[in-house]
Design goal:
The complex is a heterodimer of chains A (300) and B (406). Chain A contains ten helices and 13 strands. With 300 residues, chain A is of the alpha/beta class. A six-stranded mixed beta sheet of chain A has the order 5-6-7-3-8-9, with helices on both faces. A four-stranded antiparallel beta sheet of chain A has the order 11-12-10-13, covered by helices on one side. In chain A, α3 packs across α4. Chain B has 406 residues and is mainly alpha-helical. Chain B is elongated. In chain B, 67% of the residues lie in helices and 6% in strands. Classes of the chains: A alpha/beta (300), B mainly alpha (406). The A-B interface holds A 13-14, 47, 50-54, 69, 72-73, 75, 77, 79-88, 96-97, 99-102, 144 and B 3, 6-7, 10, 14, 201, 205-207, 209-216, 384-389.
């Protein structure tokens, strides 16, 4: 049973098509990245999944069926920006929201204490949310999302306003949750975090799914025809090489279309080049993102 | 049910400890206290309860008789003196505020002398003249004495009713139901605003999104309305306590005559409270529904202002209701949701509203409150699902009834 299965959903607001056609599945115990430029339809997709909005067409299945009141208790949702009561104390706000998820006060209190300690917020428990810094508020939101031990976490921009130490804290927490079998859907613009955390991704652009699948496979798919070579020797001129550029202490060799990288390696060795490192050039996700979005833009 | 109760207690705790709520809670009785205080102060100005004396050389007060009094308001002691020397000595010692000298020629000249150091209180001189008139008219029947002393008191009675209306104005017991109705109307407008405010805040700070992923629309709407209703209960109880204290003070301690006139009737008070409570739920649910279907906060505020006009509209239509408190129009106004509370208060000023009309109105309000609560749940759900799109009432009703049939 898939935690989330979305099939061809669409949603428009007045004259704006927020989501045109989006389909994807999220597997149990994975961290799934929901990516896309601003206004691509990510948040609308999340809201449709959570039954906050009704899709104009398409289907959403949560834990194998329609959203129900019981299933709501299995989900932790963190909207982008705020989502907590601003004018009551941190502890009271979090205890209240966890009680709505069906957690008993004693259990909620114990877990809240642990999480407040872990996120260095214990001393601010009596402060009102609006008295906390943005980073603290973000951490409070994350605590609220996982306080009731959900099976599915949907989290919009989890690293906003966090310093590097707290970013690492949240990353460690997400990896821990994955180890425990929790499914996480993460929407973010921070591609390096996606590369570090996500197993699979969906890229949405202009309300459509434009890239979907395993992150490693996607990276290889967009690797192009280039290799990175680190050597102190001078590279010989070869017909199979289209161009050579320097890339962070290495040489990036763009190959002609019919050239096999293994053949190039053997020819370089045969030519007496001392090779320290030889690898297929994998483009960073930022680059893939930009390429896909720009291509999509051109197609539109 | 547990989640509904959690929402209710949260809303209650969130609002009841706010400074704005505490101020609003105390404002109404405070304003009343200040007004009554000013009234008492104004009334007390120029009064002096130090005894007043007289020296009767004309024999007017031989075998004196008392003024036939109906009230129990505080009286000034009027003391007779055998000679002017004794009266003067009492005045010099501060035992009297003034004394009258009635000369032996009084019955011919109708002239009387008043001696004082500081001008005596108007209550004292007035009381003395009433006593003098009564004793001059000792040979006349008491009704004639009363007529001459107090003047004419016109009493109007509607055919078929046992209520009397004096030309000196309505009695406290006639006005009190209207005061209760006005208080309830004020409460209705003030407290339901909390719900609208909470709704707008939760929408703006995205807490609403977290809430709707935790509980059902029905739990949320009913929980919030229940929480706000509990707050209104606190207000009602507080105001009743203040009201009781005020009435007790005015009637039994300060002996203000107006509070003592007429027989206090509980049926109108209980009837109006019975109508006000479901109306309160109805109004809260209505504002919640408006808040959930509007796309702009300003739009919600303007609709809310219009709803407040509806609550107050019986005031503008008071004249036809006062002219004919038992007319079909008056009965309809006191049965319709929202207008019923004030209409019932206005009708009570001049008529005894039959018990069945209270029962009818309470039943209508209760059914309407349940219906509005149901509609609010549906419109909230629809408003969330169709976020950003304007919702029309017809559409809400159509979708809601479709949902109810399916």
């Amino acid at each position: 049973m898939l935690p989330v299965s979305v099939k061809h959903i669409a949603k428009s607001f007045r004259d704006v098509d927020a989501v045109v056609d989006v389909s994807f599945d999220v597997h149990q115990g994975e961290i799934f990245g929901l990516l896309g430029p601003n206004g691509a339809g990510k948040t609308t997709t999340i809201r449709i999944m959570l039954d906050i909005f009704k899709a104009d067409r398409g289907e959403v299945a949560i834990f194998g069926g329609l959203m129900s009141e019981d299933k709501k208790d299995l989900i932790g949702y963190m909207p982008e920006e705020r989502g907590l009561y601003q004018d009551i104390s941190l502890e009271r706000g979090l205890m209240y929201l966890s009680s709505l998820k069906g957690v008993q006060p004693k259990q909620a209190s114990e877990r809240l204490n642990q999480l407040l300690e872990r996120f260095s917020l214990a001393e601010f428990r009596k402060k009102q949310i609006n008295e906390l810094s943005k980073g603290m508020q973000q951490k409070a939101q994350i605590i609220n999302t996982i306080l009731h031990r959900p099976k599915l976490v949907i989290i919009d921009e989890p690293f906003t306003a966090l310093d590097p130490i707290n970013t690492q804290l949240v990353k460690d927490l997400m990896l821990e949750l994955r180890e425990e079998g929790v499914t996480i859907i993460m929407s973010t613009h921070q591609m390096h975090q996606v590369e570090a955390l996500c197993d699979r991704i969906l890229l949405i652009n202009r309300g459509r799914d434009v890239l979907y699948g395993n992150l490693d496979q996607i990276s290889k798919q967009y690797a192009g025809h280039a290799v990175l070579v680190r050597t102190n020797s001078e590279l010989p001129g070869m017909d199979c090489i289209d161009s050579i550029t320097s890339d962070n202490g290495s040489h990036k060799l763009t190959l002609k279309e019919d050239t096999d990288p293994q053949l190039l390696l053997s020819e370089l060795l045969h030519a007496g080049v001392q090779i320290d490192k030889f690898e297929i050039a994998i483009p960073p996700l930022d680059e893939i993102f930009i390429r896909v979005v720009e291509e999509g833009g051109r197609d539109a | 049910m547990r989640k509904l109760w959690l929402v209710a207690t949260h809303e209650f705790r969130r609002n009841v400890f706010k400074k704005s709520f505490i101020l609003a809670l105390l404002a109404f009785p405070l304003i009343l206290t200040v007004q009554i205080g000013f009234g008492l102060l104004f009334n007390a100005t120029g009064k002096d309860y130090t005894p007043i004396g007289y020296v009767d050389r004309a024999g007017v007060f031989d075998n004196p008789i008392a003024v036939p009094s109906e009230g129990t308001s505080r009286q000034v002691n009027i003391l007779p003196f055998a000679d002017e020397g004794a009266a003067r000595a009492a005045l010099d010692h501060g035992e009297l505020q003034a004394y009258y000298l009635i000369p032996s020629t009084y019955l011919e000249t109708r002239e009387i002398e008043l001696f004082y150091y500081e001008e005596p209180g108007a209550n004292a001189t007035s009381q003395f003249y009433h006593l003098l008139l009564t004793n001059l008219l000792r040979n006349q029947p008491p009704q004639v004495q009363r007529f001459v002393v107090s003047g004419v008191e016109l009493s109007i009675e509607r055919p078929g009713e046992n209520r009397q209306y004096l030309d000196s104005g309505p009695t406290f017991s006639q006005v009190f139901p209207l005061a209760v109705a006005l208080g309830m109307g004020f409460l209705l407008m003030m407290s339901s605003g909390y719900l609208m405010e909470a709704m707008v805040q939760e929408k703006q700070n995205r807490t609403m999104e977290v809430l709707v992923t935790s509980l059902s629309p029905a739990q949320m709407v009913a929980g919030k309305v229940l929480g706000i209703s509990l707050i209104s209960l606190i207000q009602i109880v507080t105001w009743i306590a203040f009201g009781y204290l005020g009435i007790h003070l005015a009637r039994d301690v300060l002996s203000i005559e107006w509070f003592q006139r007429g027989v206090f009737e509980w049926l109108p008070i209980l009837g109006i409270l019975g109508i006000a409570i479901p109306n309160y739920v109805l109004f809260s649910a209505l504002l919640f529904a408006i808040g959930s279907t509007t796309t702009e906060p300003q739009e919600g505020q303007s609709v809310t202002a219009t709803s407040f006009l509806l609550v107050m509209c019986p005031i503008y239509l008071a004249i036809p209701m006062l002219n004919a408190p038992h007319s079909t129009f008056s009965i309809i106004m006191s049965s319709l949701p929202i207008t019923s509370v004030l209409s019932m208060g206005i009708r009570n000023m001049l008529a005894e509203v039959p018990g069945w009309q209270y029962a009818l109105s309470i039943s209508i309000q209760t059914i309407a409150a349940a219906g509005t609560l149901w509609l609010a749940t549906k419109s909230f759900r629809l408003g969330m699902l169709r976020y950003g799109k304007r919702l029309r009432l017809v559409e809400v009703l159509r979708r809601a009834t479709m949902g109810a049939r399916s």
